[in-house]
Amino acid sequence: MPRHPLHDVAIVGAYHTRQARVLEGVSELDLVLEAIRGALAAAHLAPGDVDGLNVRSSVWRLHAREAVPWFGGRPMWTGVTLGVEAVLEAALAIACGMCETVVIADAQAGAYTDRASTSPWTRPTNEFVACFGLYTAAEFALIARRHMHLYGTRPEALAEVAATIRNHGALHPDAVFHGRRVTPEDVLASRMVADPYHLLDCAINSEGGAGLVLTTAERARDLGVQPIFLLGGATERQGMAYVGPPVWDRCGWSGRRAAERAFAQCGLAPADVDVCEFYDPFSFELIRQLEAFGFCKEGEGGDFVMDGRIGIGGECPLVTNGGLLSFSHPGTAQLLQKVTSAVFQLQGAYPEALTVPGATVAMASNGGAGALFCDVLLVGWEQA
Amino acid sequence: MSERPTIPLPRPTALSRPHWQGCREERLRFQRCRDCHAAVFIPQPVCTACFGPHLDWVDSSGRGTVYSHTVVHRPQQPAFAVPYTVVIAELEEGWHMLSNLVDCDPAEVAIGMPIEVVFRPMSDEITLPYFRPARR
Q: Which residue among A49, A52, A82, A241 is buried most deeply as judged by most CB within 10 Å?
């Protein structure tokens, strides 16, 4: 198997905070601190062990350097990126010897107050976008519509994806939509937001946070926890999000090159992936990623997702915690929750009904074609 | 008496001002690379095909087709009357822009449909380029 610097790094702790549509009386800083404490406890580590930080929050705009004093001034490295990219950034800092143990945490609360408009982080400000009434759902709808035109992808396939993922969340006790089962027919009958997207095809809005701890693979073995090793990862960008038209010909396969690099770093292929914690802002985006990452051929994603293949017992379990559609969608912390979910799944920390039996390799992704970026991460139970 | 809130209008930058100035004159302008002749939009400081530094502002015919579309029922903010149709317009010169399709029943919009630009003044400074089904 090829060697890569990422292989010398492991995730040793993962945590998600309380999640709810609105967390009354809870501040973002409360959530960030809860995420830090929770992730460190899961890793059997203490604040004094931390020498690298990437902690942030959306509304408060916490910067990692502000948090260095919380750790007695010991952290000497701080990161600035989000989600999967933040994990890669921290891992490379560890692999390069700039620090040994990094805490990553992110949270959001109190961001969505004007409910007459779509949530503020979905609304573009750009001069070529905002004036035409665009927002995230419409941007991603333009991508889905083009794929439906090119390949005949049906609304029923989108509804199957949304229902399957939402039903995973229904079984997760910490999900915002715990207990809320839906059928594909419910998805198709829900009110239209931006066609082809119905309400239940779209991510929810909520508040909460998440945290992770990374350290060297060597140290990870001595902590008395199941390390989840980094196997591969890469980023891919087609430009700034929401400043121009999401033209399928230019961004439709976003993430393909990132996935090819990540798989090449560890000698694995899509068939080796047991759990897919893919980014799920909107139902079609999963179909697109399955095609872009090579789990099925171009244009065949709509058929691929049918017949239970993406359920917990299927060959390609997708978004096993309910994701942004049901578990939670707290600002940019949701990017990190793709990685925490992959870790929980491989550590066997999920309820039995959501546990993929014998899973040893998971793939997480952030971003989608409508946002002109797509980052991927491969993690595993064993070191590469 | 409360006024209807207004939609967010563009604030031109040094890079984009020629485009918006063109709209005021009912000319739909994009950039053309003097070296490789690629059409460039949104406005850029260099050619996105060859990195060439010489970009000229030129007028589009304003004619094209619908590349993709979505009919929006949940507005970005209350100032937008629903439903409204968002399109990616593919212009004859081979470039794309976001806009709204107007003077068209949302049920009639389809990929490949011929469309043409129509200008609507929104303020002293800003005229927005919309599209409607082609009449020519």
A: A52
The minimal CB distance from B8 to the residues A130, A191, A195 is found for: A130
Q: How many domains does chain B have?
A: 1
Q: Which residues contact A152 (CB under 8 A, 6 or more apart)?
A: A299, A302
Under an 8 A CB cutoff, do A130 and B69 touch? no
Specify if B88 maps to a domain.
yes
Is residue B5 domain-resident?
Answer: no
Q: What is the predicted ipTM?
A: 0.96
The whole-angstrom separation of Cα A231 and Cα A363 is 10
Q: Is B116 within a domain?
A: yes
| CB-CB under 8 Å, A145 with B42 | no
Amino acid identity for residue A152 in this structure: G
B73, B78, B111 member nearest A194 (Cβ): B73
Per-position pLDDT tens, chain A of length 384: 678 999 999 999 999 999 999 999 999 999 999 999 999 999 999 999 999 999 999 888 999 999 999 999 999 999 999 999 999 999 999 999 999 999 999 999 988 777 788 877 778 889 999 999 999 999 999 999 999 999 999 999 999 999 999 999 999 999 999 999 999 999 999 999 999 999 999 999 999 999 999 999 999 999 999 999 999 999 999 999 999 999 999 999 999 999 999 999 999 999 999 999 999 999 999 999 999 999 999 999 999 999 999 999 999 999 999 999 999 999 999 999 999 999 999 999 999 999 999 999 999 999 999 999 999 999 999 999
Q: How many interchain CB pairs under 8 A, A with B? A: 109
| Contact between chains at A132 and B86 (C-beta distance less than 8 A) | yes
Q: Which residues of B touch A145 (CB under 8 A)?
A: 68-70, 111
Q: Which residue has the tokens 């490789």?
A: B36
Q: Which amino acid is at A186?
A: D
Cα B62 to chain centroid, rounded: 9
What is the distance between the alpha carbons of residues A231 and A228, in angstroms, rounded to a whole number?
Answer: 9
Q: Which domain holds residue B51?
A: 17-133
* Residue with token string 């989600």: A83
- pTM of structure: 0.96
Residue B48 placed within a domain: yes
Q: Pairing mode, if any, of strands A52-57 and A102-108?
A: parallel
Q: Domains of chain A, with CATH numbers?
A: 5-112+204-380 (3.40.47.10)
Cβ A195–B70 below 8 Å, yes or no? yes
- Candidate from B9, B11, B86 with C-beta closest to A133: B86
